From TrEMBL:
<dbReference type="InterPro" id="IPR050425">
    <property type="entry name" value="NAD(P)_dehydrat-like"/>
</dbReference>
<keyword id="KW-0175">Coiled coil</keyword>
<feature type="domain" description="NAD-dependent epimerase/dehydratase">
    <location>
        <begin position="4"/>
        <end position="246"/>
    </location>
</feature>
<dbReference type="InterPro" id="IPR001509">
    <property type="entry name" value="Epimerase_deHydtase"/>
</dbReference>
<dbReference type="Pfam" id="PF01370">
    <property type="entry name" value="Epimerase"/>
</dbReference>
<keyword id="KW-0521">NADP</keyword>
<comment type="similarity">
    <text>Belongs to the NAD(P)-dependent epimerase/dehydratase family. Dihydroflavonol-4-reductase subfamily.</text>
</comment>
<dbReference type="GO" id="GO:0009813">
    <property type="term" value="P:flavonoid biosynthetic process"/>
</dbReference>
<keyword id="KW-0560">Oxidoreductase</keyword>
<dbReference type="GO" id="GO:0047890">
    <property type="term" value="F:flavanone 4-reductase activity"/>
</dbReference>
<protein>
    <recommendedName>
        <fullName>Dihydroflavonol 4-reductase</fullName>
        <ecNumber>1.1.1.219</ecNumber>
        <ecNumber>1.1.1.234</ecNumber>
    </recommendedName>
</protein>
<dbReference type="GO" id="GO:0045552">
    <property type="term" value="F:dihydroflavanol 4-reductase activity"/>
</dbReference>
<comment type="pathway">
    <text>Pigment biosynthesis; anthocyanin biosynthesis.</text>
</comment>
<keyword id="KW-0284">Flavonoid biosynthesis</keyword>
<feature type="coiled-coil region">
    <location>
        <begin position="40"/>
        <end position="67"/>
    </location>
</feature>
<comment type="function">
    <text>Bifunctional enzyme involved in flavonoid metabolism.</text>
</comment>
<dbReference type="GO" id="GO:0016616">
    <property type="term" value="F:oxidoreductase activity, acting on the CH-OH group of donors, NAD or NADP as acceptor"/>
</dbReference>
Length: 331
């Protein structure tokens, strides 16, 4: 049976990847930092087929030996674990750079040790967007990279961590007997499987709820690129399974201004506390997912994502129940 390992299995994106793999008949190894933390990882054990086919291993990405133990017997690794800060970072080296960069190196070394054949590394659109030389109105493709020195100068440590880790992962794939593919998702939205809210879901929640919104009634009208977490999981598996996949792939089907995004939500789910004032933020974020689409990737309509996300937030109790969206409408 096909056996693969997902790092950081209990996280927002990784949980969907694990669910998808289990539904496709894979034997799944998942690394988590604390297998006994039911709040963080309990949901994994409840996934369909988890009892028979999911095995959790304790491993921080900075612990090489533990990674080797988790990857033993696997032919593939989907490396998702990397810190996503929910606020200001006091020690970027320890909190972000080391787990992202050294962590990825450790994962790749452990893959070689375990004779893994292929790795998909989850990078980020942050590894593209910090490129001041890219023409504003030109769609970004995979040739666009965040300028590491620029990211450092503006102390965008997350962008720096993801960019350096991705550059090194692709270099590693060139040097050694291991196929390495990277994927750069933009702002990931969609329902959560885990019970503790992740950083980016918290941002989306703040579109509908004043609590957590720094500007009260006011929000920045920035253009933001989005992808559904379920479509992203399909993309990660597609890159893993397709022998033609190579290099890096942008995964970001939609770009829209916050005002337009909020208007869609408000139209579908009136009754929540939406921001009223939008401060203008210039600049475009146009990302092309053509390379991924050409490989066979498809994605759902944004409306479907919004409906499923808001229903999920209400079910999990992160959002008080608003007016239900009519179930008769199909996308
Ligand atoms: N959400 C987005 O919009 C977005 C967009 C682009 C790319 N990404 C990338 O997607 C990946 C997953 O993000 P997410 O949104 O799913 O966030 P998340 O729910 O916070 O997941 C992050 C995962 O990384 C794990 N992790 C952090 N530091 C670790 C370490 N030192 N050792 C082992 N595991 C560690 C966390 O484990 P614990 O549970 O133990 O803390 C958690 O499982 C990250 O690589 C992120 O950069 C996310």
């Amino acid at each position: 049976m096909k056996r693969v390992c997902v790092t950081g299995a209990g996280g927002y994106i990784a949980s969907w990847v694990v669910k998808l793999l289990l539904s496709k008949g894979y034997m799944v190894h998942g690394t988590v930092r604390d297998p006994c933390d039911e709040k963080k990882n309990g949901h994994l054990k409840k996934l369909e087929n988890a009892e028979e086919r999911l095995k959790l291993f304790k491993a921080d990405v900075l612990e090489y030996e533990n990674l080797c133990a988790a990857f033993a017997g696997c032919i593939g690794v989907l490396h998702v674990a990397s810190p996503v800060p929910g606020g200001p970072v006091s020690n970027p080296q320890v909190e972000l750079l080391d787990p992202a960069i050294l962590g990825t190196k450790n994962v790749l070394n452990a893959c070689l040790n375990a004779k893994v054949e292929k790795v998909v590394v989850v990078s980020s659109a942050s590894a593209l967007l910090g490129n001041p030389k890219w023409p504003t109105d030109l769609e970004m493709d995979e040739s666009c990279w965040t300028d590491i020195e620029y990211a450092k100068s503006i102390e965008h440590w997350y962008a720096m961590s993801k960019t350096v880790a991705e550059v090194e992962a692709l270099e590693y794939g060139k040097r050694d007997d291991l196929s390495v593919v990277t994927i750069c998702p933009s702002f990931v939205i969609g329902p959560m499987l885990q019970s503790t809210i992740n950083a980016t879901s918290l941002i989306l929640l703040s579109y509908m709820k004043e609590e957590g919104r720094t500007g009260g009634d006011t929000i920045e009208n920035a253009e933001r690129p989005y992808v559904d977490v379920r479509d992203l999981s399909e993309a990660i598996l597609l890159l893993y399974e397709n022998p033609e996949s190579n290099g890096r792939y942008i995964c970001s089907p939609y770009s829209l201004r916050t005002r337009d995004f909020v208007a869609m939500m408000e139209n579908m789910f009136p009754g929540h506390t939406y921001p009223k004032i939008f401060t203008e933020k210039s600049g475009r974020t146009l990302l092309s997912s053509k390379k991924l689409v050409n490989l066979g990737w498809s994605y759902r309509p944004l409306e479907e994502t919004i409906v499923d996300t808001v229903n999920n937030y209400e079910e999990l109790g992160f959002l008080e129940k608003g007016k239900p969206y009519p179930a008769t409408i199909k996308f």
